[in-house]
Amino acid sequence: MSDLTQTWRGRAAAILIVLTVINFLNYIDQMLLSSVLEQIKLEFTLSDTEGGLLGSLFVITYTIAAPLGYLGDRFKRKNIIAGGVALWSVATLAAAFARSYEELLVCRALLGIGEAAYATTAPSIIADLYGPDERSRKLALFYVATPVGSALGFILGGLIGEHFGWRAVFLVGGLPGLLFAALAARIHEPERGRLDPASERPPGTFFTALGRIVRTPAWRINTVGLAMMTFTVGGLSLWMPTYLERVHGMSTASAGPVFGAVTVLAGLCGTLLGGSLGDRLQARSAGGYFWLSGVGLVLSAPLIVLLTRMEDLVALFVVAFFAELLLFLNTGPLNAALVGCVPAWLRGTAFAVNIFCIHAFGDALSRTLIGYVSDRAKAAYLVGQVPTESAVRAAESAGLNLAIATTAIPVLLGGLVLLWGARRIARAPDGLMTHPG
C-alpha cells in the first residue's frame, strides 16, 4: 500500500469517526424526550395523545425538511452538516427553557429540521470514502449510533431526569453538538463518486432527479420496507420507557437506563452482524441485502407481541433483546443498497426522498397513533366500571400494552415486502438493483 493510499485511508477513518460521533449525538438528542415524557406530561397536564405529538412533531418536521438532501448534491455537504448540527443543538438547549407545551413543540420542530439536514447528507460522504465492497460494513459502523445513541439517550435522560428534572436533560444534551458542528465545518470533503463508475449529471430540476429515483425498483422496495420498520421502531423508541414505568412499575431512573442497556447490546450485535452478513450475502446474490433484512423483520414481529405478554421483567428484557437484534440486522444492508442503486451525483437526493417517505408513512404518525390507541383502549376498558384510581391505572396499563402489541403488524408487512423484493431482484439484477439509464 502506497504512502498516499495510507494517508487517504487515515483521513477517511478520521472523517468517519467525526460523522459517527455526530450521529451518536443525533440519536441521543432525539431520545432524551422518551425518558422524561412522563415528567413533562405531569408538568403540563398532557394526555397520551398530546405526549405522543411531541415525538411525532419532531418526525413531521424532519420529514418535511428531508428534501434538504437535494442541496447536498449541489453544494458543500460539510457546510450543510455543520449548519444542521448547530440548529438541532440550539433547539435542544432551548427546550430546557420552554415555559409551555407550545414552546416545547416549537423546539421539537426545530430539532427535526436540523437533524434532517445531517441525516440526508452524511451517508453520501461515507459512500465517497469507501468502495462498494466495504460500504455495508462502514455504513453499519456509522449507523451503530442508531441503537447505541438511542440507548444513551434513554440512559442519560433517565439518570439526569430522575435527579435533576427534565429541563436539565435537554440542557446537558444540547451542549456537545455545538463543538462538533465546528469540527464538521473543517473536515476534508471527498470528491463525489470518486470510487464509482463515472456517471454524467444530466441537466434538470429536483423533480427530474425525483423521477429517476422513483423509477428505480430497488429504491422503491427499500423504501417500503424501511417505512414499515420505521413505524414500529420510532413508536417503540418513544413509548417503551413509559411502558416500563406504567405497566411494570419501574422508576424513571431505571426504566430508561435498563432499556437503553438492552438496546445498546442488541443494537451493536444486530447492526455489526447485519453489516458483515449483508456484504457476504450480496456477493452471492443480487437480493442478499433485502433477503437478510426481510428475514430479520419477519422474525422480530412475533417477539414484539410476546414482549407484551411477559410479566417477569427478566424474561421481558430477554425477548426485547432478540427482537431488537433482529430489527437492527437491516441497518447496514439497506443503507448500502440505497447508495448502490443510484448514481453518485444523486445519492443525497435519494436519501432525502427515502427519509421523507419512510418517516411520512412511518413514525411521523406512529408515535401519536400509539398514544391514541392507548387512550381509546383505556376508555374501552373503563366502560361500565367505576373510575376509581386503581381502575384508571389498570386501564392505562392495559391500553398501552395493547398499543405496543399492535406495532408488530407493520414490521411483519415490511419484512414480507423485502423478501418479495429479494426474489424479484435476484431474478433480474441488472434491471432492478441499479439506477435507470
Please write out the topology.
Blueprint: H1 3-44, H2 48-65, H3 69-72, H4 77-95, H5 101-119, H6 122-129, H7 135-143, H8 145-164, H9 166-184, H10 206-214, H11 217-248, H12 252-284, H13 288-307, H14 313-328, H15 331-340, H16 347-360, H17 363-382, H18 389-405, H19 408-427, H20 429-432
Helix pairs in contact: 1-2, 1-5, 1-7, 1-8, 1-9, 1-11, 2-5, 2-16, 2-17, 4-5, 4-9, 7-12, 7-15, 8-9, 8-12, 11-12, 11-16, 11-17, 11-18, 11-19, 12-13, 12-14, 13-14, 13-15, 13-19, 17-18
Main location: membrane
Subcellular location: Membrane
Organism: Nannocystis radixulma
Quick recap of the structure?
By secondary structure, this protein is an all-alpha fold.
Notes on the protein architecture:
With about 425 residues, this protein is mainly α. About 80% of the residues lie in helices and about 0% in strands. The protein has 20 helices and no strands. α17 (about 365-380) runs antiparallel to α18. The mean pLDDT is about 85. It is a multi-pass membrane protein. Keywords: Membrane, Transmembrane, Transmembrane helix, Transport. Its main location: membrane. It is found in: Membrane. This is MFS transporter.
